[in-house]
Amino acid sequence: MPIALDNLRVGRRYVLVNQGEVRNLEIIARLLGDNFKVKDLDTLEHYTIAELLQWGKGKDYDLDEMRQ
């Protein structure tokens, strides 16, 4: 079961699976509401959660804290 967006914490790392894509993310800052600025740990690019979910949540959607 995926973690709710309002339970994400700044500085923590998460794995996001959505529509066939797997992304390893670190939460950089909390923006308005359930939106966060995130850093992709594989490409080092910065996104917002809203940008990653703008096309909706697929059947494979999962968001979980990264295991160390």
Can you summarize this structure?
This protein has 68 residues and is mainly beta. It is 6% helix and 41% strand. The protein has a five-stranded antiparallel sheet with strand order 4-3-2-1-5.
Task: Give the key terms.
SH3 type barrels, 68 residues, 5 strands, 5-stranded antiparallel β-sheet, 1 helix, mainly beta, 6% helix
Number of helical runs?
1
Strand content: 35-45%
CATH T-level fold name: SH3 type barrels
Radius of gyration, in Å, reads: 11 Å
Structural class: mainly beta
Shape: globular
CATH class category: Mainly Beta
Q: How many angstroms separate the termini?
A: 19 Å
Number of domains: 1
Count the strands?
Answer: 5
* Percentage of residues in helical conformation: under 10%
Strand adjacency order, main sheet: 4-3-2-1-5
Low-confidence stretches: none
The string of secondary-structure elements, in order, is EEEEHE
CATH architecture: Roll
Mean pLDDT reading: 92
What kind of sheet is the major sheet? 5 strands, antiparallel
Describe the secondary-structure layout.
Blueprint: E1 13-18, E2 21-30, E3 36-40, E4 46-48, H1 49-52, E5 62-65
Antiparallel strand pairs: 1-2, 1-5, 2-3, 3-4
Describe the structure.
- With 68 residues, the chain is mainly beta.
- It has one domain (5-65): SH3 type barrels, CATH 2.30.30.
- The protein contains 1 helix and 5 strands, in the order ββββαβ.
- The protein is globular and about 25 Å long.
- The two termini are 19 Å apart.
- The model has no long low-confidence stretch (mean pLDDT 92).
